[in-house]
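Progress note, project year one: complex with zinc ion.
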Amino acid sequence: MKLLMLGTGSAAVTNCYNTCFALIADDGRPMLVDAGGGNGILKQLERAALPLVDIHDMFITHTHTDHILGAVWIVRMVAQSIYGGKYSGTFTVRGHDEAIAALRTICFATLPVKVTCHIDKEIRLVPVADGEHFEAIGCDFTAFDICSTKAKQYGFAMQMPGGNDDERVVCLGDEPFNERCRCYAEGAKWLLSEAFCLYSQRERFKPYEKHHSTALDAGKLADSLSVRNLVLYHTEDKTLATRREKYTAEAATHFSGNIIVPDDLEQIEL
Ligand SMILES: [Zn+2]
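Model obtained:
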């Protein structure tokens, strides 16, 4: 399986795209996770050579603009492909009840009837509950509440096909870890965690005021959860030139496993 990072930035970035990604099964089937804040997702998909007509599954973590608004564009373009005769099968978007309700409201408020008439037909908006399992791209996913103090947010644990229980990819969304989620994340093969900035630059970027964490915090967390691989995303975009090197070094002060700080469009072999 592969992880294709379509964006790696936090909400207000201008030098990279907002954090969103695709998990791509060995047979090529992708599941999109969030879509950034607008139609820039279409450019990212184009640059990654990921055809929209291949996307049949999507997961939305929460309703914040930098995650959900790109999904409106995905719905629009999928519908356009459906009525253009280029898209076959169904497109399923999953998320918690509030995220799915928000997506539905925004779609009906902003998209033409020729698009919205496909919602609840070929385009399915499906709420999932905390702890609920669902199947997508041939994998078992468990959605879970990350216990955000801001907007309700779900992450997920994806069981890789044919693997043991620890062959898991766990997405913790874009907020600091809550101990309640330890059962999903502990011992995972891959942990996807936010790291807004370096701890050494906390005075400059104020991660804690924004309810985000740092590369150092993510390294400590990865160590405490005994994961094997750590991917850091949802960062500030003022230090992109040195981000990989410096974030990796800082997380490595507490975590001895593999650390990846990807750039936009980077592909990671899971
Ligand atoms: Zn965000």
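The two ends are 5 Å apart (CA to CA).
The chain has a mean pLDDT of 97.
No further modelling is planned for this target in the current period.
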